[in-house]
Amino acid sequence: MTRVLVVDDAATVRLYHTSLLREAGFEVAEAANGLEAVEAAMTTPFDLFVVDVNMPKMNGYACVETLRSETVGTAAPVLMISTEDRPGDADRAYQAGANLYLVKPVAAERLVRVATMLTTGKDPAA
Amino acid sequence: MGLVRKQAPEPEAPQVLDTDELVRRLDDPDPELRREAALELTGIPAAVPELLARVGLETEPRVRDAVLTTLAAHDSEAVAAGLAVHLASDEAGLRTAVAEALATMPGSVPALLPSLLAAPDHDVRVMTAMVLADLPHPEAKSWLVRMIAEDPHPNVVTAAIDALLPAASAEHRPVLEAAVLRFPDDPFLAFTVRAALPRLTGTA
What we know:
Structural class of chain B: mainly alpha
CATH superfamily of chain A: Response regulator
Number of helices of chain B: 12
Radius of gyration of chain A: 13 Å
InterPro entries (chain B): ARM-like (IPR011989), ARM-type_fold (IPR016024)
Number of domains of chain A: 1
CATH architecture of chain A: 3-Layer(aba) Sandwich
Organism (chain A): Actinoplanes octamycinicus
Largest sheet of chain A: 5 strands, parallel
Protein name (chain B): HEAT repeat domain-containing protein
Mean pLDDT of chain A: 92
Helix content of chain B: 55-70%
Oligomer: heterodimer
Organism (chain B): Actinoplanes oblitus
Order of helices and strands of chain B: HHHHHHHHHHHH
Strand content of chain A: 15-25%
Pfam family, one (chain B): HEAT_2
Largest sheet of chain B: none
Strand content of chain B: under 5%
Number of strands of chain A: 5
């Protein structure tokens, strides 16, 4: 089963993303900030990370940088989802090591489609 | 003959630095010295402008956190206003750290709320909802309700809903349902409210 870590400080956002992904057949774990995500990634291999930007303790960019660093060293795809849609936000995400940056809100079908594409390389809608 | 105890050496008195020296140390190349200086400037109003000037410049997160901790302890309108400008920062670490600091300033943040709630940048209003989520103030819930009822941007409304939900009750049901009607095309907002309503009405 494909394992996803949903990282967001907002409980409602975690619930939303987790519910959609579980319904689509993913195995989902949750983290409330970047620090928790890094700790989880050091003990459990994940196939996909869905990461928010604005979080306490460790923000999303720092989280993704750490996931990509030698400390964790994961090559699993990272999808960043944020309310931030200013010029440069997406570039910052890609610099940190994200594979895709989406702006909230993300429709259910789109989230599942993107998660499937990032983890299998195939478009389920094709 | 009884044993003669050796006198323990007198402990060295800790070095007391004056404010000017501590302010100078805010620019020291050693981040640990900068952090210590920031913490030692606690309770010194004369240092506030210098500390505020460092918030946007400090690159070391632990030093920045020390600066913010010292500033937040003042809980004055000058500090709140000086910090609030960073809610619009392009740097995620800075804006979230500032939001956390503002959330510990119930004495001075309320005066800023009219301007924060009217900020033209909706991301600033999202960060304001994050501040209100943790602000220990009796009116925090009322401001969040106002955001949910009035803000024109769905991401601000969902951030306010997320901030309100841990403390929400049945009285908030109408404002939540009205938000869904205001943004019928927002799937997340509808999901969030649908998931929350049973708990609010005690049917979860």
